[in-house]
């Protein structure tokens, strides 16, 4: 699958009738097997962008082209699990065709095996997030969308889940979009990093990471982070041309 | 144990009151039981209670099914709400007696008229409850279903319906008690059998033991249905809540 996005603008009217511009210029393309990471200040319009990409929001200026029959797996910013269904039934609702072996494997990787029959109300937020991840992986997606999936997880677990994402991306030709504010996550996982400005969001930098994920060492990661830091500083200078 | 004790206290009070008031106004428990046994032996008690139960079941099912459908529609579609709202207010405030009498005049003293009248009495409250339930649906779950491409019917069955379940349970609970009350009035006014009819006959003959025998048998059946069917169903529906009320 190939995703081509060219959003010229997106605005909404607030309850008081005022017009708010959320997105200003978002143009990029990604192919299956690639991980695109969006990094930007909170409230800049990342979630709005994801809603447009999934087709939930059709009211924008611009064009998006992707395979219409692509299976989408998504992790929302909040887990969005049905409280009246057990963990397993929540996953099975989205992925009715999954075979038992694969489901058990997913649960064991995400350390959910002991919680299969629990209801979401009995889970901590971190556990609920893992269930949301399991649900997104279980549908065997062509298009995986992750909205801040590692928030409120401890570092060790976040790394394990990143490994799972890497495995999934490597084994299947899945196109992944990750939204995060954590530069470490972004650099570890992404093939392409898109830095977003404050609202209304536009892409201020588009950085490619050439080294494959498996061989990315601390040195490369530090180098890319330094480059990003330059860009974000540059962005500030651009906004204040008469500054120091 | 506590329930039995409270029942025993009730019987005791009844007995003392019966002795004080005299048997024409309030017969003693054995006298009422005696009449009930005679009626049961002749089969009349079972026939009348059975007929009444059948009417309750039909009218209740009709009202809940229609009420859930109309309420859901009015909660989802603004136009449906605008069109339906005045009728809803009218029906909500129309006395049960008016509906029953009009139904008998228009449709004759028939079974259809009786059941329709009972159902119409119960309908508006169900619609109002379900409309509120539909308005309270969590939109984020709809989005989840859309993104994961869960088919419409599956989403309705597993995402919408469970959210409406507490509202349906509330409508059923309040609706059932309303139907229990109204069905006897409908029977009294225009049916040749049923508990309501028998109570009407007993009233005309001032036959208090018979009146109490039928009323209490009916109350006993209601109690059994509520505890054996309605309450377990509610518990099952809300088992995922950590602290079910």
Topology, element by element:
The complex is a heterodimer of chains A (244) and B (245).
Chain A: E1 2-13, E2 19-31, E3 35-39, H1 46-54, E4 61-65, E5 72-75, H2 87-94, H3 100-109, H4 125-138, E6 143-147, H5 155-171, E7 175-180, H6 183-189, E8 192-196, E9 201-208, H7 218-239
Parallel strand pairs in A: 2-9, 3-7, 3-8, 5-6, 6-7
Antiparallel strand pairs in A: 1-2, 1-4, 8-9
Helix pairs in contact in A: 2-4, 3-4
Chain B: H1 2-21, H2 29-42, H3 44-76, H4 78-93, H5 96-107, H6 111-135, H7 139-147, H8 152-190, H9 195-204, H10 208-237
Write out key terms for the chains shown.
heterodimer, A: 244 residues, Rossmann fold, 36% helix, disordered C terminus, B: 245 residues, mainly alpha, MetI-like fold, 85% helix
Describe the structure.
The complex is a heterodimer of chains A (244) and B (245). By secondary structure, chain A is of the alpha/beta class. Chain A is 36% helix and 26% strand. Chain A has a 9-stranded mixed β-sheet, sandwiched between helices. Residues 235-244 of chain A have low confidence and may be disordered. With 245 residues, chain B is mainly α. Chain B has one domain (30-237): MetI-like fold (Orthogonal Bundle). Chain B has 10 helices and no strands. In chain B, α3 (44-76) crosses α8 (152-190). Chain B is globular, with a radius of gyration of 22 Å. Chain A binds chain B through residues 54-56, 71-74, 76, 78, 80, 82-85, 93-94, 96, 119, 121-122, 135, 139, 145, and chain B through 140-141, 143-144, 146-150, 154, 158-159, 162, 165, 240-242.
Brief write-up:
Chain A is of the alpha/beta class and 244 residues long. Chain A has helices at residues 46-54, 87-94, 100-109, 125-138, 155-171, 183-189, 218-239, and strands at 2-13, 19-31, 35-39, 61-65, 72-75, 143-147, 175-180, 192-196, 201-208.
Q: Which sequence of SSEs, written as H and E, runs from N to C of chain A?
A: EEEHEEHHHEHEHEEH
CATH architecture of chain B: Orthogonal Bundle
Any low-confidence stretches of chain A, pLDDT <50, length ≥5?
A: 235-244
Structural class of chain B: mainly alpha
User: What would you call the structural class of chain A?
Assistant: alpha/beta
Name of the CATH class of the domain at 1-64 and 177-244 in chain A: Alpha Beta
Q: How helical, in percent, are the residues of chain A?
A: 25-40%
CATH class of chain B: Mainly Alpha
The biggest sheet of chain A amounts to: 9 strands, mixed
Q: Which residue ranges of chain B are poorly predicted, with pLDDT under 50 across at least 5 consecutive positions? A: none
The largest chain-to-chain contact, stated as pair and per-chain residue counts, equals: A-B, 23 and 17 residues
What name goes with the CATH superfamily of chain B?
MetI-like
Radius of gyration of CA atoms of chain B, rounded to a whole number? 22 Å
- In DSSP terms (H or I, runs of 4 or more residues), the helix count of chain A works out at 7
Strand element count of chain B? 0
CATH topology of chain B: MetI-like fold
